[in-house]
Specification:
The protein is 38% helix and 13% strand. With 178 residues, the protein is α+β, with helices and mostly antiparallel strands.
Length: 178
């Protein structure tokens, strides 16, 4: 057996791995990767007890974070952290809904708006607040947001956000629902 290579995968071993191999049974000694994957792992074939799995799952009301939400101040700090990353030159993109872009585009055509959105110049970034809005018509100073069904469960948050954006931009705010 070549003492410099793992007998299972043939990868070159580091000095510390070779010295560990010399101390161990040479027939069974392998690199860290192979020993973690195979029968040499001391946990190989073992499973957790039902009670241990239950303690680790933290599902539903057992979860210590069940029912807790970030405070308004914490959410503001997280948004400001995004602003900071953006100022450092890091690329930060929000997720977006392609269906929303189509609906915003249709609404704009019907009502005479030219909204900038994720598929038309990128979502508008409200500097100072750390928000991206689904659509913004700079000429008419109008924000449009598409609310998916999940927004029905977060009305207070949405109202606070809307108020902040309206105050900051002094704009009209339109909501369309899906």
């Amino acid at each position: 057996m070549n003492e410099r290579k793992c007998p299972k995968c043939g990868v070159e071993l580091f000095y510390s791995q070779r010295s560990n191999m010399l101390r161990a049974n040479r027939e069974q000694a392998t690199c860290k990767r192979c020993s973690k994957l195979g029968e040499l792992n001391s946990f190989y074939g073992k499973t957790h007890t039902k009670e241990a799995r239950q303690r680790m799952s933290h599902s539903g009301t057992d979860n210590p974070f069940y029912g807790r939400r970030h405070s308004k101040e914490t959410r503001r700090k997280m948004r400001l952290a995004v602003i900071h990353r953006k100022e450092l030159g890091m690329t930060v993109y929000p997720r977006y809904n392609p269906k929303a872009c189509k609906l915003i585009e249709e609404y704009g055509k019907q009502h005479g708006y030219n909204f900038q959105h994720a598929e038309n110049g990128g979502e508008y970034y409200v500097k100072g607040l750390g928000y991206w809005v689904d659509g913004y018509d700079e000429e008419k100073n109008t924000v449009i947001e598409y609310y998916e069904p999940r927004h029905r469960n977060q009305t207070e948050h949405d109202e606070d956000r809307q108020r902040e954006i309206e105050t900051h931009l002094n704009c009209e705010f339109i909501i369309i629902s899906g």
